[in-house]
Design a protein that fits this description.
By secondary structure, the protein is mainly beta. The chain contains 1 helix and 16 strands. The longest helix has 26 residues. The two termini are 28 Å apart.
Length: 444
């Protein structure tokens, strides 16, 4: 994130440099410059801009023409937008493996266990971001650099109470190695319970005498047998006292754009065509902390980093009348999405392996998983806005920004709930984000 703040400052510094360069050149008209040295071909973004700004940015906008479709601005420009937007939630995915109901037990009882946290997590959320754009346009050609940092989305939910009471927040795990099997002691008599009613009590022997020492049974094993009754094993319930689910998503990116402004249309509008190289990142975190209960204390933090790189085409249509400019922009990015998934976590740090009510063979686990893959991710962006000219070069603006991103990996949908060390999937889906932006612009 701070990376992108740094990049944003870089963009700002670049724009100031461009300003200085353009202003310097503007003061000394370029009598000696041969015609073909003008920035008209626009292919050298860091050449000096041979353009006279007549630079009085805060001059009153007294020369406002009320005719429809005025000439657009030329020279160096800068704009800043604050963005507030919301984003679609990931596909439905319970916190837990999709197993339906599973027969499980612990020292409190035997029951059918279902995932407690169903399809509603995480919810859609909204957040703030920043966008900086700087560049220049002379005649019909120019360059632009655009940096976006955010929006960022953050949500957190807490389920259950960490009060040592009933551990009733349930998360199912697949258990291919039967590590969850264990003996239980529901009546608290210190003997494993005899689940198959053959009078052999798990690891604790045979009940063949009653309370008077006569043949019979009293529910208390007293006779050694040289084996454990494996029929008394049951899957130990994977419940927790309290679960905290934390979801964070962050957008960022940079694009470098060659701008070509088309000639004025019949209606007095202007169209700019964009050809860009764009980098866009969607960084998604899904962190779960689970305390108490059969597999507590535990956490599993999963992160999906989608790095989209590719060529982009776009346009800007604008129409100015008086102090008002109406503009709309569209962009289409054909990106390679280099996706990296990471996961670290711990399960059952408080486990007493083999105790009644705990798994017989599962020991406390810690793990680190990674996975990476590439996908094709199309991405579209649209904007529509109004700007109001305050002084000659300074305007305020407000509008709408929408994103559509295909084939991105989210963290929450790629958690594999499998014992002992969990895992990562490779699911991708589309995401849609939209919202409002507002800010100011200089000479755009
Ligand atoms: Ca018992
Ligand atoms: Ca038994
Ligand atoms: Ca007995
Ligand atoms: Ca048996």
């Amino acid at each position: 994130m701070s990376n992108f703040v740094a990049k944003s400052w870089f963009a700002l510094a670049l724009s100031v440099t461009l300003y200085a360069s353009a202003m310097g050149q503007g003061r000394y008209p370029m009598v000696h410059i041969p015609q073909n040295a003008y920035a008209g071909d626009g292919m050298m973004p860091f050449d000096a801009v041979y353009y006279d700004h007549d630079w009085q940015p805060f001059a009153a906008a007294s020369n406002i023409h009320m005719d429809d479709g005025q000439r657009p601005n030329e020279g160096v420009f800068f704009r800043y937008n604050r963005i507030y937007s919301s984003m679609t939630k990931p596909n439905r995915q319970a916190v837990g493996a999709d197993l339906g109901g599973v027969l499980a037990g612990n020292n409190d009882g035997i029951f059918n266990q279902f995932n407690s946290l169903g399809a509603s997590i995480p919810e859609s959320s909204s957040g703030w971001g920043n966008r900086f754009e700087a560049g220049y346009l002379v005649d019909q050609d120019g360059w632009m650099i655009s940096v976006v940092d955010g929006p960022g989305y953050h949500d957190q939910w807490v389920h259950g109470a960490n009060d040592g009471g009933a551990a009733d927040v349930s998360v199912l795990f697949t258990d291919p190695f039967n590590l969850l099997l264990g003996y239980i002691d529901r009546d608290g008599d210190g003997f494993d319970d005899d689940l198959d009613n053959d009078l052999i009590f798990g690891r604790d022997g045979l009940d063949q005498l009653d309370g008077n020492g006569d043949p019979g049974s009293d529910g208390v094993p007293e006779t050694f047998v040289p084996f454990d009754d494996l029929d008394d094993l049951i899957r130990i319930a994977t419940t927790f006292d309290q679960i905290t689910v934390d979801s964070q998503t962050h957008f960022s990116g940079v694009e470098i754009t060659k701008v070509r402004r088309k000639k004025r249309t019949h209606g007095g509008s202007y169209v700019e065509v964009f050809l860009s190289a764009r980098y866009f990142e969607l960084d998604d975190h899904f962190n779960v902390t689970a305390l108490g209960g059969g597999l507590g204390d535990a956490f599993w933090n999963t992160r999906a980093i989608n790095s989209l790189v590719g060529p982009q085409v776009g346009f800007r249509w604008s129409h100015k009348r008086g102090r008002w400019t109406w503009a709309s922009e569209g962009r289409f990015l054909a990106a390679a999405n280099f996706t990296r998934l990471r996961q670290d976590g711990e399960l059952g740090t408080l486990l007493t392996t083999g105790a009644a009510g705990s798994p017989l063979n599962l020991t406390p686990q810690s793990f680190w998983n990674t996975r990476s893959f590439e996908r094709f991710s199309p991405m579209g962006e649209v904007r529509a806005e109004m700007s109001y000219q305050v002084t000659k070069a300074f305007s305020l603006n407000a509008g709408y920004t929408g994103y559509f991103i295909g084939n991105i990996a989210r963290a929450s949908t790629n958690v594999i709930y499998s014992l002992p060390t969990m895992g990562l999937g490779s699911d991708t889906e589309e995401a849609f984000a939209n919202g409002v932006h507002f800010g100011f612009e200089f000479n755009r």
